[in-house]
Every structure is written in C-alpha cells, then in structure tokens.
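Deliverable D5.2: sample structural annotation.
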Amino acid sequence: MIYLDNNASTRVDERVLNAMLPYFTDFYANAGSSHIAGLSVNEAVALATWQTANLIGASEEEILFTSGATEAINLAIKGLLNQDRKHIVTVATEHKAVLNTCRFMESNGFEVTYLPVAPDGALDFNVLNESITDKTLIVIIMLSNNEIGYIQNIEAVSTIADAKNALLMCDATQAIGKINVDVKKLGIDFLALSAHKFYGPKGIGALYISAKAKLKLMPQIHGGNQQRKLRSGTLNVPGIIGLGKAAEIAFDELESDQKRISKLRNKLENGLLKFEGSFVNGNTENRICNTSNICFPGVNSETLILALQDISVSNGSSCSAVTSEPSHVLKALGLSDENALSSIRFSLGRFTTENEIDETIERVLVLAERLRV
C-alpha cells in the first residue's frame, strides 16, 4: 500500500501510540477526580495541554480540547450566535466545516459574505477590506488550503480585521505540523486543529481561544462544566495525551519533515507533469510542503483513483470525496468542471519513501495515458 492521502488523515506515529497506551489500561482514572489516581491523570493532561499550546505559541488556559477541528469550528462560530453584530466574512475555498456552519448561521439571521480568490488561491486584500463593515463580527479564513495547500497571509488579514474590531478565526487543520504557527504573531482569535492530520489519533482536536474571543463565546455542550464551562464532558485522556505527544514531535521535527517531504513532493510533481497537458492547480510556491494538486486533462480522476488500486490519493476534500461533483475549491480557482473532475490531490507525509514516489510516478503516467479520453 502506498499512501499519498495524508491531508485526509495520517498514520499514528508509534511514539504517539506508545504515549497513549498506558492511559487506556494503567492510568484510566477520570481527570476530574480528586483522588490520587485522578490527580495523576490530570497532571498528564496538563503536560499535553502545554505541548499543544507550545506548538502554536499559545498559553495553556487558551486551549480547549474538542473531538476534532470540525467541532472546534462549530463551537467558535455557533458560539457567537448571541452577539449583536450579525455579519460574517469568509472565503469560497474554505473547508465545508466552515462553509456549512456559516450557512447555518445564515438560517439564524446572520449575513455571510463569501469572498472569491485568484486563480492561484490568493485573497484580494482590497476586497477583504471593503467587505468588512461595522456589523462584521468575525472574519474566517483558513491558514492553508486542504486541497491545493495555498498559504494565506493571515498576518495581513489580522491587521485588516483588527482595525475594524472584528474577530479572526483560522482553520489551521492542514497547516499544523507543516509550517510554523504562532497565534500571537498572526493575530488570531480562534484557531482549530485536529490531531489526526499530524500523526496523532482521530477523535481529538483543539480550539485556541484568545482572551478577547472568550468573552463573546457561548458553550455548545452543557454538563459538568469541564474546560472552564466552555465544553462540558469527561476528557478524552488517551486522545489528549496523543495530541500532546504529536504536537511535541511536530515542534521538534518540523524543519526536518519540511525539508524531506518537500523534496519528495517536488520529485513526484516533476515526474507527473510529464503527462501531456498536465498542470498544477494553485500556487506552486506559497504552499505547504506536502501537497500537489495536478490536473490530467481528459482523464476522469475517479476512474484513475480506482485503477491505481493500492495507491491512495484523492480528488478533493476527504469529507466530500464520495461525491462526483467537481471540487468547490478548484471551481473557485476558475477551473472548468471537466478539468476539476480530472484533478488529483497527492499529499505526502512523514512516512512516505522515495521508492513509493518512483512507483507512483510510473503507474500514474501509464494509467493516465491509458484512460485519457
């Protein structure tokens, strides 16, 4: 099996798994209990909280654990329902977790502006500035796109949003572990992340909440008042430990991972672009190190993906890959339906090898030529 769909999910690093295992069997007490066993688990949770916060330049009290980035996004947006300002600004290329939550807000009296992007995925800051009004509550823009890897200039976005007293939320799900992220430097109020995107377990994520944003946020899950009353429920201790360990490894190995993975990505891309008429979707410079989205004109991507069998790639977001509709991200870049449906996302990871890249190039080129209409 050759796995090149790491933007959908990553393999759990063995170091992460080993850190988690004792919290299923030996240290299984509830972290909220006041006995010695519970206090011991709570200390481990505190360390994982610090590890997570340290990865993004935050402090521990600004981290709230969730079931993943989707829940974090929902909490950050829906938690603002009772605010007086009723306008949201976001981007057409956001993940469906953001877009569909914004549509929910529209059904509850909010106005949402969906900004376009340039063919390379870039945002027009003049358009952004003009879109923010005195009624704008929050600007929601992802740090790096899950389909094309484009990295938005969030620091510039923050300057514009802050000047108009609007909050800034950033879906950093695809950026964490691939680029340096500092919430203070970037001026972010909410940041969502998921452990399974950077070699941690599924079912655990986090929401960073700035002090300013916390004052406006309503909880969406009520119960025993855990996590400063913002997200009740017994903590997923093994998951939190796994997230913390994955964050620690990502912090320590970011530079070496970037260097190795980008080299493999470039080799893959250069090899696949030998297919006549093929081209890379989006910006080829300002993107995360592991992602290449390539159009093979005249080749149906779903057919090619099935033909590849034990090589795992995708033709869009993992949350919408089961549909035969063209990617909303690629359409926003200006691609025709035909070219969008002929595009494949290759996303490499920590465990990708050069031999796997060589085999992928060979097999994709042969099969694409055979399937070309």
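Annotation notes: The radius of gyration is 21 Å. The mean pLDDT is 96.
The annotation will be released with the project's public dataset once the embargo ends.
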